[in-house]
Specification:
The protein contains ten helices and no strands. By secondary structure, the chain is an all-alpha fold. The longest helix is centred in the first third of the chain and has 38 residues.
């Protein structure tokens, strides 16, 4: 369970750093640039220090695709935190466990249990509570773009998690260091190209904060893969997701006094229950 705890702590740190960056009004893309530079550096070190440095074309091309997906999900996370706060954004990200469940049903013909069907009902309720909570928080007509970012975050994180599980079964543990190196290196290149294309002025403060963000970002993926290697997914995913939700909610309140209204608390409870049911 140590790897589960370390994964939760790293992922909680990510949400808090994104919240800090949003509060300071710094550039989200330069934050991600620094983040992926450090994550790529750490993964390169891990790959070079392994006994056998595996090189794999399937892992290379799969990593290139996931690098783009990681950037897409992280950018959505920064926007979601700005729109809905760290607590609700984290619930949205963790609720993405529904995506691997649905894809497993479609691709591997797994039949949902009665509890999983109930879990999907609570997913729908949680999304409704998200909408009502944001509407109450804004105290005016909701911007649909805010809700859209939560949906994009939910979809992106879910696809990331499912891809990690696919890679674990497809390629094996020996190729993981090289796989992580390709993911974070390609994400760094993609982010740099976006910044160059948009001709953004360099934000030194956001970049330096991103260097700190890269450490928990890289190790959250590393510890998740390590947890999946020693524990069944049915234990890992609900334990990690619920721990992240609770830790983020408590930390956001203690640091920024980020309060959830009554409907937001319902979203927190409903989302947590959905995660548990989907993994049973």
């Amino acid at each position: 369970m140590l790897y589960v705890l370390l994964t939760a702590l790293c992922s909680t740190s990510i949400a808090l750093i994104l919240k800090w960056n949003d509060q300071s009004g710094a550039s989200g893309l330069h934050l991600l640039l620094g983040n992926y530079l450090v994550a790529a550096g750490i993964s390169a070190f891990l790959w070079f220090t392994t006994a056998e440095r595996w090189l794999s074309w399937p892992a290379f091309f799969f990593g290139l695709v996931l690098g783009a997906l990681f950037l897409y999900s992280f950018f959505a996370f920064t926007k979601a935190v700005a729109a809905a706060g760290a607590s609700l954004s984290t619930v949205s990200a963790r609720l993405s466990v529904a995506i691997p469940v649905v894809l497993s049903m479609l691709l591997f013909r797994e039949q949902p249990t009665t509890l999983q069907v109930a879990g999907f009902v609570f997913v729908g309720l949680t999304l409704l509570f998200f909408y009502l909570s944001l509407q109450d928080k804004k105290r005016h007509k909701i911007y649909w773009l805010d809700f859209f970012y939560l949906f994009v975050l939910w979809l992106g994180i879910g696809l990331n998690d499912f891809s990690m599980k696919v890679f674990q079964h497809w390629r094996g543990q020996a190729e993981e260091p090289f796989f992580l190196l390709i993911i974070f290196s390609s994400a760094f290149v993609y982010t740099y190209l976006v910044i160059r294309f948009q001709k953004l002025k360099f934000d030194r403060g956001a970049f330096l904060l991103g260097l700190g963000l890269g450490v928990p970002n890289m190790f959250s993926t590393f510890f998740l893969l390590a947890a999946l290697n020693v524990l069944p997914a049915v234990v890992v995913y609900p334990s990690v997701n619920l721990s992240i939700i609770l830790l983020t909610a408590v930390a956001s309140y203690l640091i920024w006094r980020e309060r959830l209204n009554r409907v937001g608390l319902l979203a927190l409870f409903s989302g947590s229950l959905a995660i548990v049911l989907l993994n049973l």
